[in-house]
């Protein structure tokens, strides 16, 4: 770095090491304490440490957060460090949803620089309310306001931070413009939730298949969100459930109680979410009850495949298949359910695979899971998949009593979803991936059948419903044999385990 040449030789190597790692550099910065308004040294909290690590590993990052946990501050410190150590004229942009917050984020740069040891101070070619440019490298930090004329169209930015993205007037258009301006550079989106079904919600629900690394922070993870309680404090039944679900102590419960008394429950859930269900809470008539879905364990998967369990030789399986055009819009989805446990063991989700190629994937997974019984929706592109499966001589396709493929109508769709709802209410389904759970939570009934709100998807939910609907048409002897085989395998494994624990049938006297 050019400016290091001005530093005395004895200190040059030490300073180069100190500024090369963002963890060390950030510790040298100063920030304004919100309580005292005084400048203090930047000491990262746990969330900021996690975020800083992720920023160095991913190029497309989307952050869902509660209010006031220091995410924006950390992101600005990271941008300042990136520009500070740059050897080329990189350009970091921050876009906020109104002018005041954009300028506030830009002022942080000046405070960061001022708080550095004097030996690290640099000369600026430009320093005003919207731009800061280092004189020696031309590296620049700029702020913009979402919706302002011109926006980022006039510049080629190296990296961009989109602040409070969910509150932009036209987030889709601004994101498209930003991505074009940045190219292969880093794009970071952060926001508190705003509305179910908006652009931010869609990006969150599309991760990681859409190429974004999703990072979620919940209010109960932030250590300062607590209030002292007196001896008379007593939890309500609802607070007991919250405490058990998130391992909360009384001080956290008291803080939550005070915030709800101030903001109201609905706004609190949006501003300080405890989970994805809080973040994008639906107030309309949802098809599945939130309490029933809360009993299902949600897990995250990376990539198109979600493999819960490998195929077991003596088990039998069913598959529900929902087919799309594979042109980047709706998703084609496979869901495999074990007949011995009635649990989901595999899912696949992609919106870029054309139906002809998707048929090969369906066939491969069907054969892998012991020639599973396939219920494939025949509507639209499903005809292509079914035809290909027959070309492949796949023998275990679902047919109705008249030998016809499944066609989704109002009646058959309700039939499938009602079957799924029975399994959920009976607490049979133990685990689902988070994307599937969010789709189930978002399903609403505007007319007759469950539908995803505008802008969201329901392909995972539909595939799941088809899979469980398929279980109803499996002969009882197949179900019985699968369960018996699994029980026999379990007994044999226990016997083998006992033999290994005691390999000889007598005790040895030493």
Task: Provide a descriptive summary of the structure in words.
This protein is an alpha/beta fold and 510 residues long. It has three domains: 216 residues, P-loop containing nucleotide triphosphate hydrolases (Rossmann fold); 43 residues, no CATH class; 192 residues, 2-Layer Sandwich (Nucleotidyltransferase, domain 5), CATH 3.30.420.240. The protein has 18 helices and 17 strands. Strands 5-6-7-4-8-9-3-10 form an eight-stranded mixed sheet, with helices on both faces. The protein has a five-stranded mixed sheet with strand order 12-15-14-13-16. Strands 1-2 form a two-stranded antiparallel ribbon. α4 packs across α5 and α9 crosses α10.
The CATH topology annotation of the largest domain reads as Rossmann fold
Helix content: 40-55%
Largest sheet: 8 strands, mixed
- Count of DSSP H/I helices: 18
**Termini Cα gap:** 73 Å
The percent range for strand residues is 15-25%
Radius of gyration over alpha carbons?
A: 28 Å
CATH architecture tag of the largest domain? 3-Layer(aba) Sandwich
Reading off the top of the CATH hierarchy, the class of the largest domain is best stated as Alpha Beta
| Structure classification | alpha/beta
CATH superfamily of the largest domain: P-loop containing nucleotide triphosphate hydrolases
The figure for the number of domains is 3
List the uncertain runs: 504-510
